[in-house]
Structures are given as C-alpha cells and as structure tokens.
Amino acid sequence: MNIWKISLSNIFHKPLYAFLSVLSLSISIGLLLSIQQLDTSIQNQFENSLGDVDMVLGAKGSPLQLVLASVLHMDNPTGNISLTEAEKITKNPLIKNAVPISYGDNYKGFRILGTNKEFADLYEAEFAEGEEVNQSMEVILGSTVAEETGLKIGDTFMSSHGLTENTVEVHKHPLTVVGVYKPTYKVIDKLIVTPLESIWDVHVHRKEHQDEEHTEKHHGDVQGAAHHEEEHEREITSMLVSFRNAMGTLTMPRRINKETSMQAALPRYELERLFNFTGIGVRAISWIAYIILAISCITIFISLFKMIQERAFDLALMRTYGASNFQLIRIVAYEGFLLVLIALVTGALLSQVGLHLAFSAFKHGYNQDILLKFPCVQMVKTVVLILIIVTIAIVLAILPILKMNVSKILSNAK
C-alpha cells in the first residue's frame, strides 16, 4: 500500500480545501518571516550607518530630526550652527574626534556633503578608484551614487540647490570627480563627499549672484561684505562627535543642551526610541500573521476531519484488508504535512518577494541599498512554532481513527 500516493489523491480529491489551507498558511508564514527579516535588516542598516558617531551637535530642534538629517541623511536639517562655536565645544578632552559636515545641495537627488578627510574614517570607507580631494570643488562619490549616475573619475557636473533634484536653481560652478568609494552598505554610499570649502564657495557665489541682481549699483560693497561675513562667520550643518569614553556620553549632551544655543543628540538613543515606536507596528503585523496562522490551522483541521468522516467506510475497509491504525494515521498525517510543506515553501517565496518590493521602495525613496539580514534564531523559532501548531491540528483531526468502530461503520454502510 503506497501511503504517499493515497495522501496525494486525498489532497486532489478536495482541491478547494487544500488551496484555501495552503493559501492562508502561506500568507501567515510569509508575513511572519518577512516582517522579522525587514525589521532586523533595517535596524542593522541604521545601526551600521551610525559608524563611529556617538553624538551629533547641531541647531536647536527635534533631536531625532537632527540624527536623521545629519547621520542617516533621511530628513531636513534643523538649521546651521557657527563653526567657531562648535569647535570651542569640541576641544573638550573627553572628545576623541569631531567631524564637521555641511550640506544644502544635491545632484540628481544625492546629497553633496561638505566635510573633511576624517569623515570617511567614521564608516571605514576605502577607495575603489581615484584619490583624496586636494582642493575645493573636487568630490568623491559613494558607490551607490557612482552606480546610479554613471559619473566617472574626471567627470564634472553642476549641483542644484536644495536636497531634492531640481533644474531651476542650478549652480554655475562645476564639481570634479576625483574618487569613488567601495560599497560599504552604509550611509556614505549615497553621498557625494567634498571639502567644506566647496559648500562655502558655491553659496558665496550664489549669494553674490543674487545680490548682483537686486543691488547691482552696490555690487562692490555687497561682495566685500559677503566675503567678510563668510571669512569670520563660517557655518556648518552639524558636528559628528566621537568620545574617548562613556563619561563624555553621560555628561556632555546635558551640559551642551543646557548651557549653549546648540543641541546635542545621541544617535543610538534616538534610534532606540524610533525602533520602540516602529516596534508597535511590527508587533501588530506579527499578531495579524499569528491570527491568520490560527485560522489556517483550523482550516487544516476541518479539512482532515471532514476527510476522515466522509471516508470512514474506505478507512474501515482498509482495516479489514490488513491495514493497521498506524498506517491509517500516517495517511492523514502525511496529507497534513504535505500541505504544511507546500505552505512553508510558498510562504518563504512570498516573504522574499515582499522584501524585494520593500527594499526597492526604500532605495527609491532614500537612495540606499539595504543588506538583507536573516535573524536565524528568531526564524527557526517561528518555523518550529508553526510546525507545533499544525501538528496539534493534525493530531486532533486523526483522533477519530483511534476510536473507529470498523464493524459498525461497515454494517451501517450496507
């Protein structure tokens, strides 16, 4: 007696029940696996993008916005701060390193970031080709920027004012590509890095051009005033700070926020708060998936139970021909586990399709590739839980076989 063949024929005998069981179970499995991988991958991506940054020093406003804007480059800045004032604070012996950054322009939606040579060290970025910048108006491309724009060493391009792509406010001073970073799967991949002087020079020329249009007769005075202002009041967007030890993290942010006109935000603390908020959504989706899983198991139970009730005569007849209770149980159990196996494979495929769509949307919105991470322990626990729940449903369905009265079933059939 080929038990596998009988189990397969039972599945195809009631295709609608089998389809509904597999569909609902696949959806719940796909949701559970995809939400776990998505949550883990995004958290890992954000944490990696922090690099060696312990604190962000910037203008007053929302600390989360400051972190998202200055570290993850996913929001607008809270404003500018004085470079001189920021440098005074960062001379504290508790601070190991302080990297100034300034931005406000883009090229095809990719932010142009003014900073110094220590910025790449925060993300352990290495050159794929080219070299360090040596003067203003030279840039190094992140790997994503180079791939998406097609720019190469020696190419020049014009930046646009603002953080989103536009063709209205295009600067007239070209930037030259001198290097390209290797992929790091961190935030630097989507940035165009240039010296701070590039940002200042571009905006000095832009200011002079605007002043020229509005006050042409006073051009010389305005230009001199603009140069004087830029010379003595350089501004940056924020300062990325690394501490020598935990004492800096404990003491400096509070003192800065209380005693200065600037704001200090701790990236890891702010991201933890953000994940706590998003975790509510993750848990809600997970509970929906578990509810669908419970419904799926009930569907499988009903399907198997009805099969036993409808085929009671056939099962009793098989007993009279020498089949044992264990063989009959195996027929039903194999049918249930075949449905589960198909659902597991389908659910895993659905999760990967969903993740591909989610990562594509994230890349389209933020120009950032996400490295897929598999939370193996959590996923194994989920699969084991699914198997346990389904096994319980199958066991409950096959209990009538153990209580089956063969002679009574055969006599009633006659």
Question: How do you describe this structure in short?
Answer:
With 414 residues, this protein is of the alpha+beta class.
- Provide the succession of SSEs: HHEHEHEEHEEHEEEEHHEEHEHHHHH
Number of strands: 13
Cα shape? elongated
Give start-end ranges of low-pLDDT stretches: 206-232
Number of domains: 2
Q: What fraction strand?
A: 5-15%
What's the number of helices? 14
Q: What is this structure's SSE topology?
A:
Blueprint: H1 3-13, H2 15-49, E1 55-59, H3 63-70, E2 81-82, H4 83-89, E3 95-107, E4 110-115, H5 119-122, E5 127-130, E6 138-141, H6 143-149, E7 156-157, E8 160-161, E9 175-181, E10 192-195, H7 196-214, H8 219-232, E11 235-236, E12 238-243, H9 246-259, E13 262-265, H10 267-310, H11 312-320, H12 325-366, H13 376-402, H14 406-413
Parallel strand pairs: 4-10, 6-9
Antiparallel strand pairs: 1-12, 1-13, 2-11, 3-4, 3-8, 3-12, 5-9, 6-10, 7-9
Detailed description of the structure:
The protein is α+β, with helices and mostly antiparallel strands and 414 residues long. It contains 14 helices and 13 strands. A hairpin with a 2-residue loop joins β3 (95-107) and β4 (110-115). The model is unreliable at 206-232 (pLDDT under 50).
Kindly list the characteristics that best describe this protein.
414 residues; 11-stranded mixed sheet; elongated; two-stranded antiparallel sheet; alpha+beta
